[in-house]
Structures are given as structure tokens and as C-alpha cells.
Design goal:
- The chain has about 270 residues and is of the alpha/beta class.
- The chain has 11 helices and 8 strands.
- It has a domain of about 180 residues: 3-Layer(aba) Sandwich (Rossmann fold), CATH 3.40.50.150.
- Helices cover about 40% and strands about 25% of the residues.
- Helix 5 links the parallel strand 4 and strand 5.
- The chain is globular.
Length: about 270
């Protein structure tokens, strides 16, 4: 994960990012199922953030696999590595490294995974090419990217409420975050990277909160929209919150906020030579 003009400063919010992990857990589970890891595998997790889903995989295999996680944000890597040390996990480590410039030799890993990272790469095409290069012939990959703009619901709400209140370079990064969810884009990038044996499936999962106010507390506490909020006056922040509350009304179920989000899950192999 890297900082950008309108993206969160991933280094600075690293300690708070874990607040979102329970809501992203269904995607991590889907990835680990699709990865089909086996005892003895060497596994690479790209754009690991604060360590998930790689840490969950390490706990389940308890030393039977070797996992290397990388992220471009040093703050994220520090948080992830602290978890490794605290839990005394011997089969996983994290490094600060851009996905587009992997230091690993060709054909180093049996499995590669990436949860919601590829679309945030500075150069997604180069990052996927590096993933292909580092994967062993016959090795398997699993990656998830957000779907199209309107299906990344919470960010779409933020974009709708903020786009007329901020200059374009401060808009929530909806275009970047959903750029690989548009029809044919991820497919073309995977082919360009060298993959031919793969499939892309659409999945839906939900963020669930006791109320809108609980959701909004997470937004503010996690600083996920800090770039945008810092550019607003106090009364504008209140107006934005209330506009997003209005947009969320259709997602109220039995007094709870249940927000569907869509993502693409790409899985496949690097053909054996």
C-alpha cells in the first residue's frame, strides 16, 4: 500500500487499520480457500497491510508453510511484524517492498495471494508481472480486487457526498480503488502479465454495524477519510455525515446497517513449462 494525494497515508493510519479487519475477514477467508495452500509451500502475500490474511494462514499451518509478506508502507509492515513477534510465529515474516520491484528470484513461490492490493499499486501491470515472475511453474495464485464504483458502496457514498465540496485531487479515491473492477480490465492485465490458466468470479459480502452511528465512528476513528476531512470546515463535515446517513438509509435492516460490497476473486496457475 502506498500513499497518494487522495488516498489515506497508510504509514500514519497503520495502527488504526486493524479496526477494519473484522469487516474484511470474509474476503480473506475466500482467498485462503481459493489459494489451496499445502504443507511445504513457500507463499508470498503481496500488499499485506497489517498482516491479513497471511497471519491467519500462518496460524493454521503452524510451521508447515513458509510465508513472506510484503508491503510498500513501512508503518504497515511494522504493525504486521509486531504481531509475528508477539505470537512467536516462526513461519512468517514481513518486509517493506513495492510489489513492482520484488527482490525475489524467478520461480521462488508455490503460492501467491493479494487482498485488495493490486488496484492500489503504482503500476498494477508491472506488479502482476512481478507476481507471475516470482511464482513457480505450476504454482497457484489468488487475488481480490474491489468491483465497479457503485458496488464499492461505502466509498461510493463518500465520493457522492464529497465530490462537489472538494477539488478533484482531494476526491475520495473511488476511481483508483475500483479501477480493476470494470469489465475486462483485470482479465487484460492478467493476460499481459503472462497468465492464461485462471478464472475471475464476482462475489458479494457485507459490512454489518449495529447502526449508522457505529459505522461513522469507525470511519472517523480509523482516519480512512482523513485527507478529505482535513480539507473541510467543521460545518461541512457535519453536512457530509448527514448526507452519507441519508444515502445509507436503504441499507438499514431491522435497525442494523448492512452494506453489500462486491469484489472480484481471480484464481489460477502459472503454467508448468
Amino acid at each position: 500500500m502506498t500513499a497518494n494525494n487522495n488516498q489515506p497515508d497508510w504509514d500514519k493510519i497503520a495502527e488504526k487499520f486493524d479496526l477494519w479487519l473484522p469487516h474484511l475477514a470474509p474476503v480473506g477467508e475466500a482467498l485462503l480457500t481459493a489459494l489451496e495452500a499445502r504443507s511445504g509451500d513457500a507463499i508470498l502475500d503481496l500488499a499485506s497491510g497489517t498482516g491479513e490474511p497471511a497471519l491467519s494462514l500462518a496460524r493454521r499451518f503452524s510451521g508447515a508453510v513458509t510465508i513472506t509478506g510484503i508491503d510498500a508502507a513501512a508503518g504497515m509492515v511494522k504493525v504486521a511484524q509486531t504481531k509475528v513477534s508477539k505470537e512467536r510465529l516462526a513461519n512468517i515474516s514481513f518486509q517493506c517492498m513495492a510489489a513492482e520491484q520484488l527482490s525475489f528470484a524467478d520461480n521462488s513461490f508455490d503460492r501467491v495471494l493479494c487482498r485488495f492490493g493490486v488496484m492500489l499499486f503504482e503500476d498494477p501491470a508491472k506488479g502482476l508481472h512481478e507476481m507471475y515472475r516470482a511464482l513457480k511453474p505450476g504454482g497457484r495464485f489468488a487475488l481480490a480486487v474491489w468491483g465497479g464504483p457503485e458496488t464499492m458502496t461505502t466509498l461510493y457514498w463518500a465520493y457522492a457526498a464529497l465530490k462537489d465540496r472538494l477539488p478533484e485531487d482531494k476526491h475520495p479515491p473511488l476511481t483508483k480503488v475500483t479501477s480493476l473492477g470494470l469489465p475486462g480490465v483485470l482479465d487484460a492485465l492478467l493476460q499481459e502479465a503472462g497468465f492464461s490458466d485462471y478464472r475471475i468470479d464476482t462475489h458479494t459480502f457485507q459490512y454489518e454495524f449495529p447502526s449508522f452511528d457505529d459505522y461513522w465512528e469507525l470511519v472517523e476513528t480509523s482516519d480512512i477519510l482523513k485527507v478529505q476531512y482535513d480539507a473541510l470546515m467543521e460545518e461541512e463535515r457535519t453536512a457530509v455525515r448527514e448526507e452519507i446517513r441519508h444515502l445509507s438509509a436503504s441499507c438499514i435492516q431491522d435497525d442494523r446497517l448492512v452494506v453489500p460490497h462486491q469484489y472480484l476473486l481471480a484464481t489460477g496457475y502459472k503454467l508448468a513449462t
